[in-house]
Backbone:
């Protein structure tokens, strides 16, 4: 509309996850990934040194609803070929967070200089995949209309520990009219690799949640009079478990800046 | 335990639907069918003269949740071979209700003397089938422990009419803790031929239900503090639609005295 130049001089096809990765890899895109390459899986990333990975893998296995593992790299190998042929985890995430001894150190857009032979990448599924399936089924996600994400809450449910990894379950809340809540349960049950069916419906207090108190103020917690709050296990749960474990070194994606993969969301549906 | 003779002199294998039908056919059993031949489908029965059957078939098609048709006979044919090879609808239901012009006339244990060449039998699925699947999954149905059935309620939801068949949707209510309610939705979604997924969860008032006011006082309406009421379409809905249509002649099964079939409940599961 205006005569101003585009903020980024490089244009790329936002419907193509390969094009998105190339733009991110070249430093041409460092923003949020919501809305990019619709239909394709976006993944949460956690990179740990070998000494910590067996326990973390066990933590994911024991808590598969909040920690749905969709790929794990070989030690020292920056590739994840089951997610995309060309993928290089050192360059293909828009922004990374670096942690030392459990403390956040800095945000970077490339981790090549941090890479080590003992680092292992974990890619975990994300609820964006089932939100797409809900929208395609005609369900309304009002927080998207407000340009927000689902509200995130700390519960009084403890995850099953594995070694030093432990902590409470975090959940996302989406509000629906009752018939749509039933439909949302059916739809998300088809996606066990991206958190699956809800863990709770109805009274927030029975899982220790106060809807007014969102975790780190993330997302939208509105529930209308004729709606029921429905709660799904949240991918921030393993991040909190990692924080509690205080590994000597750790790299994650920055919030909402995920790894784009070539897997189709629909390919994760089991039914 | 006592030295008294059994009330019925004829003993038969209560785990076998064929044995049950033989006992019923011979007049040796005229009671309720709950608990008989566990694992096998029991059906609601509605027998109508040919002049009314096209509209009733359409009513079932338009309202498949309350009216899940599992078999329809040929006109004048008392057999339903897809439900059981030996089945004769004139003798194989423990107790029948006879209606003329929509009014109840009498209860009988054999309808041979009422049989006509223009009568058509409709067999509709029943929620007993999915209740068994819920119990097998470890869900608790407290009304069964109290020797009752799920509470039945009239809603403010109108079914889709077909010819003279019309009326409100009736629902059954089962109360669950939230995680079990989610599981119950998953389980019953597999059984579209026996009412399928719930039609409502949570606030009864939003479908016009007052839990204290059961339809014809049928069943158990208790909901504990930590439970959610979950509502399924009920097989009494077509009975009410037939009552509203006032067909010249109609035969149904008596409440809780169903047709025993050789179909396994598990065979109705689509997933």
Residues:
């Amino acid at each position: 509309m205006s005569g101003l130049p585009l903020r980024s001089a490089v244009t790329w096809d936002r419907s193509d996850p390969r094009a998105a990765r190339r733009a991110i890899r070249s430093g041409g895109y460092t923003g949020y990934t919501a809305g990019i390459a619709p239909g394709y899986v976006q993944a949460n990333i956690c990179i740990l040194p070998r000494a910590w990975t067996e326990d973390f893998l066990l933590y994911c296995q024991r808590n598969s609803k909040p920690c749905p593992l969709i790929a794990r790299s070989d030690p020292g190998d920056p590739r994840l070929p089951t997610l995309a042929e060309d993928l290089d985890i050192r360059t293909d995430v828009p922004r990374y967070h670096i942690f030392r001894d459990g403390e956040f150190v800095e945000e970077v857009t490339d981790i090549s200089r941090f890479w080590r032979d003992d680092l292992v990448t974990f890619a975990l599924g994300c609820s964006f995949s089932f939100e797409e399936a809900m929208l395609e089924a005609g369900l309304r996600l009002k927080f998207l209309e407000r340009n927000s994400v689902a509200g995130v809450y700390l519960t009084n449910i403890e995850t099953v520990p594995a070694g030093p990894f432990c902590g409470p379950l975090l959940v996302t809340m989406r509000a629906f009219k009752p018939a749509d809540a039933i439909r949302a349960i059916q739809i998300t049950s088809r996606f066990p690799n991206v958190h699956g069916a809800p863990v709770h419906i109805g009274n927030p207090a029975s899982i220790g949640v106060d809807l007014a108190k969102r975790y780190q103020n993330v997302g939208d917690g509105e529930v209308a009079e004729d709606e029921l709050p429905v709660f799904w296990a949240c991918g921030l749960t393993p991040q909190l478990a990692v924080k509690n474990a205080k590994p000597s070194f750790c790299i994650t994606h920055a919030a909402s800046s995920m790894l784009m993969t070539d897997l189709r969301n629909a390919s994760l549906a089991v039914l």
Q: What stands out?
A: Helices of chain B lie at 17-25, 50-62, 128-136, 142-145, 178-189, 236-245.
